[in-house]
Structure formats: structure tokens, C-alpha cells
Design a protein that fits this description.
Blueprint lengths: L1 E11 L2 E4 L2 E5 L2 E6 L10 E10 L1 E6 L1 E2 L2 E2 L5 H13 L2 E8 L4 H16 L13 E8 L21 H10 L4 E6 L6 H10 L3 E4 L6 H9 L4 E2 L15 H8 L5 E4 L7 H15 E4 L11 E5 L2 E6 L2 E4 L2 E2 L6 H12 L3 H4 L5 H6 L14 E4 L5 E6 L2 E3 L2
Parallel strand pairs: 1-5, 6-9, 9-10, 10-11, 11-12, 12-13, 14-15
Antiparallel strand pairs: 1-2, 1-3, 3-4, 5-20, 7-8, 16-17, 17-18, 18-19, 20-21, 21-22
């Protein structure tokens, strides 16, 4: 069945199309035109709005009361339904540091679900789908572990990485690594050679230690400012390089809790529209009332939008549509530049594409002039906002 979508404009990294008409058939984009004369009344019309690719989150742990490490359809289905309602179509299922056997089981289970997306579909309800895995650990710093369980942290070990890589069956796309750990540069080079992007984070690294892992192929930085050595004018450390190396992407959690608005503006000036990535670091309490929830197997207390465990921030309850409006409020950035941070940049960082083009899945959102989400469409089906 054919579905038509129209709006004031269509945004993509290549530019703006005014008065677009998107024709959707069999859940994919069949055609994009600029004229309405040949069409009947559109099925979905968003006057004054901007259409763009649906959001992509490369750092996401859970939502709707479930954690991705459960790695079961009954967990990922409600997670995907909630994400779809907030404009996210794809994400990297992100693990936290845990016993190696538990991580291997989670990675293996996630790999099976990623390879069989139909197993996650429930009725006609649109859902976001995991398209890869992000390992946040176990190769992280004790000094900057944040809420990661210290007893399960490991020094970089290529043999352990390879076990995780094989368990992922080709779906491991990103790993967070602390550059100062012995063997970090060697592991970074090995992971990069196997097609896995390396993100530097949970680290107390000096600038020299960071540069070594950057030289070995690191592509990004994990939740910039958080769980990172503070900036110093004589020892810039990991943060100094994250902010100044133009080739390096950098995540940011823009919930107003993890990073103050002034520092969001600094990050924006440093990384800009080409290298900034807005992530949620969301955990199972996202979309749920205050209370106690799980993050990778340990308890997290959530109150007033703040997730805490053992006195430390433990992820967030942020959604990507809210990250966008927060970012626009904090920085005053133009919408057409900010959209890259949730669409083009994250997928390019891990080697995918986010284009709305003929033949691509009909994953798109409609945004108003203030960045508010008006509609979310996943594979041609509208989600309830």
C-alpha cells in the first residue's frame, strides 16, 4: 500500500528540499519529489515542519523498565516501542561492565535478535531496532569507572576482545576503551582492523596516552566530560584532545544534569556540526516513574530525572527528542545544524548511512521550528507520540 508524507521541507546532510512529497511503499521510500500536483491528498501532512531521518543512538542501555542486556524479545519490544515514540529508529545496544560470562551471554543473545529483526516485531506497533552492539567495558579505568563495577574491570586483552567479537557474530560496532591502560593502543589497533570503532572514555589518561590510542585508530569519545580526567592547562589530558582533535567524534549527554549548559556550548564550539554526537546513555528507568531500576544487573535509584547508584550518576532517563530541544535551548544552534548530531554523525562514525533516499527504510521524523518532535515514523508506520 502506498503512503504519502508531505511537509514544508526535507532535511538531509546534502541539503534542503522544499515542499517534499515522500512516497512510501512496502515500508520503504519509493520516491521523493518536489511537486504535489500529481498526487491526491497526502495521507500524512505536516505543514510548516521539517522532515529528517529518524534518530540514531550509539549509547543506549535500556528503557521502559528493561535493560538491553536482558537480550530477549520481551525486553527489546517495549524498549523499541518507547524509543519509536521519541523519534529513535535505530540504536546500538550498549552493555555495562559485568562478569565476562554474563556479558558474553548478553552479546550472543543481542546478536541473534539483531540478525532477526522480525523476532522483535509485535503486531503493527512500530519499534526502534538494535542494529549493533556497543561494549562500554570491561576495559575501563578504575580511577574513572563511574558506576561501572570495579570487580569486573579488566586490562585490555585481545583474546578477551576476540571472544566478545565472535559472540557478537559481526554485530559489534563500538567499544569504549580507557587509553591509559596497558595494551590499550594495541587493542585499539586490533579492534579497528576488525571493523570495530573505538571510543575513548572512562579514562584518567594524559594527553600522551590519549594520543597513542588516537594514533591507533580511535574514532570517538564516550560521554564527553563525564568519567574523564578534568582539563588542565599544563596537562590537557584526554579531554584536551577530545575537544581539539578535529577528526575525533565526541558524544554528549544533553540532559542538563550530566553536563552544564555552559559546557555544552564549549563542546559545540569545539566539535561543531561535523563531529558532535548527541546520545542518551539511557537506562531502564527511561519513560518510567521514579523508583529503583536495574542497569546491567545492579540497582539504580531514580528521582527527579536523576539516576544514581552508590552516589554516582548511573546513566540517564533522557530521550533523543528531548536531547535535541535541550541542545537548541542551551546553544541557540540552528536546527539544520543540530539535526546532524542525532542522524548523520552517529551513523557515519560507525560506518553506516542515515540518508532518506529511494530504496531506504521509511524511518523519519517531523520536527517543528523549535526542534519539538511532531511525528515519528518507523518503516512507514506512525508511532504514537
Amino acid at each position: 500500500m502506498r503512503t504519502l508524507v508531505t511537509a514544508a521541507r526535507l532535511w538531509s546532510a546534502e541539503g534542503i528540499v522544499e515542499n517534499p512529497v515522500i512516497e512510501i511503499e512496502d515500508n520503504r521510500i519509493a520516491a521523493i519529489t518536489r511537486t504535489k500536483e500529481s498526487w491526491a491528498t497526502p495521507a500524512h501532512n505536516f505543514p510548516g515542519a521539517t522532515l529528517c531521518p529518524a534518530f540514531f543512538d550509539v549509547h543506549f542501555h535500556g528503557a521502559a523498565g528493561h535493560d538491553v542486556m536482558e537480550a530477549k524479545p520481551e525486553a527489546l519490544q517495549p524498549i523499541g516501542a518507547l524509543l519509536a515514540r521519541h523519534g529513535t529508529a535505530r540504536y546500538l545496544a550498549t552493555t555495562v561492565t559485568a562478569p565476562l560470562d554474563a556479558t558474553l551471554r548478553a552479546v550472543s543473545g543481542l546478536a541473534r535478535l539483531i540478525a532477526n529483526p522480525a523476532s522483535l516485531q509485535s503486531g503493527k506497533q512500530p519499534i526502534a531496532r538494535p542494529v549493533g552492539i556497543h561494549l562500554e567495558g570491561p576495559f575501563l579505568s578504575h580511577e574513572k569507572k563511574g558506576v561501572q563495577p570495579a570487580e569486573h574491570l579488566r586490562t585490555p586483552d585481545i583474546a578477551v576482545f576476540d571472544r566478545l567479537y565472535e559472540a557478537a557474530e559481526g554485530h559489534l560496532h563500538l567499544i569504549t576503551l580507557a587509553p591509559e591502560l596497558p595494551g590499550a593502543a594495541e587493542l585499539a589497533a586490533h579492534a579497528t582492523a576488525r571493523g570495530v570503532r573505538v571510543s575513548m572514555g572512562h579514562s584518567n589518561a594524559t594527553a600522551v596516552e590519549t594520543q597513542a590510542v588516537l594514533n591507533a585508530g580511535a574514532a570517538s569519545a564516550t560521554h564527553t566530560f563525564n568519567a574523564m580526567r578534568p582539563l588542565d592547562h599544563r596537562e590537557p589530558g584526554i579531554l584536551g584532545l577530545v575537544l581539539t582533535q578535529d577528526q575525533l567524534y565526541a558524544e554528549l549527554i544533553c540532559d542538563g544534569i550530566h553536563v552544564a549548559p555552559d559546557m555544552v556550548r564549549l563542546w559545540w564550539k569545539a566539535k561543531g556540526e561535523q563531529r558532535g554526537i548527541l546520545v542518551t546513555d539511557a537506562m531502564s528507568a527511561t519513560g518510567m516513574p521514579d523508583g529503583e531500576y536495574q542497569l546491567g544487573g545492579f540497582a539504580v535509584q531514580v528521582a527527579n530525572g536523576r539516576a544514581m547508584a552508590r552516589g554516582v550518576l548511573a546513566g540517564s532517563v533522557l530521550t533523543q527528542d528531548r536531547a535535541l530541544t535541550n541542545f537548541l535551548e542551551f546553544t541557540g544552534a540552528p536546527l539544520e545544524k543540530a539535526l546532524r548530531l542525532l542522524t548523520t554523525n552517529p551513523v557515519e562514525m560507525i560506518g553506516m548511512t542515515a540518508a532518506l533516499a529511494e530504496g531506504s527504510p521509511a524511518d523519519l521524523v517531523a520536527i517543528d521550528a523549535d526542534g519539538r518532535l511532531l511525528a515519528s515514523m518507523i518503516e512507514g508506520r506512525l508511532a504514537k507520540i
